[in-house]
Write a structure and sequence with these properties.
alpha/beta, Aldehyde Dehydrogenase, Chain A, domain 2, 2 domains, 7-stranded mixed sheet, globular, succinate-semialdehyde dehydrogenase (NAD+) activity, Ald_DH_CS_GLU, NAD-dependent succinate-semialdehyde dehydrogenase, Ald_DH_N, Ald_DH_C
Length: about 475
Amino acid sequence: MEKSDLIRTEAYVNGAWQKAASGKTFDVTNPATGEVLAAVPDMNRKDVRKAIDAADAAWPAYRALTAKERSNILRNWFNLIIEHKAELARIMTIESGKVMTESLGEVNYGASFIEWFAEEAKRAYGDVIPPHTKDRRLVVIKQSVGVAAAITPWNFPLAMITRKVGPALAAGSPVVVKPPSETPLTALALCVLAEKAGFPPGVYNTVTSTESSEVGKEFCENTKVRKLSFTGSTPVGKILMSQSASTLKKLSLELGGNAPFIVFDDADIDEAVSGALAAKYRHNGQTCVCVNRILVQDKVYDTFVEKFTKAVQGLKTGNVLEKDVQIGSLINEKGLNKVKEHIRDAVEKGARVTTGGESIEGLFFQPTVLAEASGAMLIAREEVFGPVAPIFRFSTEEEAVQMANDTEFGLASYFYSRDVNRCWRVAEALEYGMVGINEGIISTEVAPFGGIKESGFGREGSKYGMDYFMEIKYMCFGGVNK
């Protein structure tokens, strides 16, 4: 691995680079090549507790900074992230298997949250309420919630951190980040830049560990942690919610998805193919908002399958560091085996492979299309998290909505139609926190990101994002007219 000032092999706690107290480490590998990239500290609950204590000790002074002072530090951090974009993207690519073009895009996307919340820090407005009696004045203010813990996933090693810590830091809350064991190097690189940006010691902390369940318990049960934000699977989210009950922790949970992509017979088919390609194969299908089910109306089904298959066949798989490569590796053997199992199950139950369907080498897998998919298949119920696109048939608008909503998840959804009345009807009927209408890429820092049902609760980004890291305080001033 090439040397870089951003590559660190120690955790960052209380303004210092630290090893695990036990001395234990774990290896970080490149999923595309199998190369061991680095060894980082394998911290336990005691190490994490020290980071929480440091954040709690830093809280009074940090929340006392003016909103503009916090804004200036965040703006410094944003500038540094953009300045080091190429370096950050390379680190992200070699530890996650994400292709270089997408990694560069993620740095811009991730940085946008820091830029956005640098501005929102100055807009945490309260209210003056008309009083109910003449001698009182009623005021509402917003204050920092306190120490915020963030548990982030491997598929967006940078953006899932900035989307959580941006609003927390803007609100005056110190943070403790636990990145995934697959991609800690990007998280630690952010620490280098956060330190340069000027965050006081203890305000920004990152702990690395393979003991995810133990770290999660510490976050949930430690009374000094006032807020926990988690992105990951629904089963783990439920565990964290249960463990947080003892402290009534304030939670934001962004959990699993089963995103439908509906193509009506009045859609622009070429646009729908382009949108589905982007929404399905981004990061090799390994994102929570990736399309998991493509639903196509009978009249245009065969045309869509033919055009979509041809488009998928044009995707380039190869060296993830090359800028024209569009499909990288899967993250690990478990992910590869899940892809294979879903395809095997679908074919046994009547699906037809129109392209792909085979491993290439290592953790690479051909981008795959399955025609004649049905609700009896595993892939109809489970998030495949890989480069497999099953295509289902439907006849009527009502059937499409029913099929789309027939899941416990409710994160992202998409549909294509040129009928404006249908667009309103279907968008309102879909039981999802986010709906893309004639668009396959919907994430942006200016709009709220989050789901409903078993995809969790809470919103990240947008003007709503800071509210989840703040408490509302009502103040009643009496005796004003005396």
